[in-house]
Design a protein that fits this description.
single chain, elongated, 13 strands, alpha+beta, 313 residues, five-stranded antiparallel beta sheet
Length: 313
Amino acid sequence: MQRRVRLRKLPHPIAARSRCRVTVCIAVVCENGKKLVAVSDMKVTFGGMHSADEVGQKNTPISANWCVLQSGDLVDAPNIIEDATARLSSLPSATTAQATAALHDACLERHKRQIDAQVLARYGLTLADFLQHGKERLTEHMFDQLCDEISGVKVATDFLLIGFEGPEAPRIVWVNGDKAPARYDQIGFCAIGSGDFAAQAALAFHADRGNMGANFSWTDAVYCACDAKFRSEYASDVGKQTHLAIYEYDKETLMISPLRIDQDLRTIWEKHGGHRVPSSIAKLLPEITYSPSQFGTQDGWQRFLGKTPTERE
C-alpha cells in the first residue's frame, strides 16, 4: 500500500507576478477574398497601472501565408507563437486545419506548462503525474485543493489566425486554447481584445450599410477597419498608435505607417466620421502604402513619412 502524503500549501511563484496585456486586433476580408486587412493598436499594459504605446508588435508570421494577431497576455504569447511556428516548419504550405491545429495545440501545451510551473512543480509533480497517480498518492483534501488551483490557471491570450489556403481562400480563425477554434472568414471580419465590442459593432455597422464586404475594395476595408479601431480607443487600454498590414496570397505584405495613419487617415476620419467611406480614400491609400522591399528607398520614405528625410530636416 502506497503512503498518502500531506503536502504543505506554498505561495504561487508566478500567480502574483504582473502581467503584460495588449488590447485590440481586427481582421477584414476584401477584394473578392484576395486580400486581408489586419489592424491593431500598439499599446502594452503592465499590470493594472502602467502602460506604453508604440511598443507592441501584434501580428507575427508563423508559416507561409499565415500569421497571428495576438491580444491579451504577452507573457504566454511568444512561447505559443514559437511553438506553433515550429509545428508548421516542415510544411511548405499549411492548410487551414493544420495551421489551426498547430496554434490550438501550442495553446494547450502552454497551459499544461503553466499548470506545472504555477501549481505542481513545487511538489515535484507534473500534470501527467497528477492525473495518473494523484488520487492514490495524495490525501483527498490535498488532491481537491490542487484541483482547485489547477482550474484557476489560465492562458489569457486570444489569437486571430489569418491567412490564405489559396489565391482566393482567405481565413480568419479565433483561437485561444480554452474553447474550440472558431472560423470568421465567412462573416468576413472579426475583432478581439478589450476593444472588441466597439470594434465589432463598427464593423457590423459598415457591413450592414454596404460600406465594406468580401467583394469590396481593400481601400474601403482599410478605412472601415481603421474606423473600428479608432472607435475602440474609448475602451480601456486601447492605444492610439495603429499598426496596419494588407495581406495577399503569395504576395509581399503592404503596410501603412502609424505616422501616415495619424497624419492622413485619422485626419480624414475626424473630418468626415465613419458613417461612409469618403471618396478621397480611394486615391489617398495607394499613395501611402509601401512594401518591405520599398522601405529605405526614396519612394518608400515618401510613402512612410509623407516627406523624404531631406525634406523633414
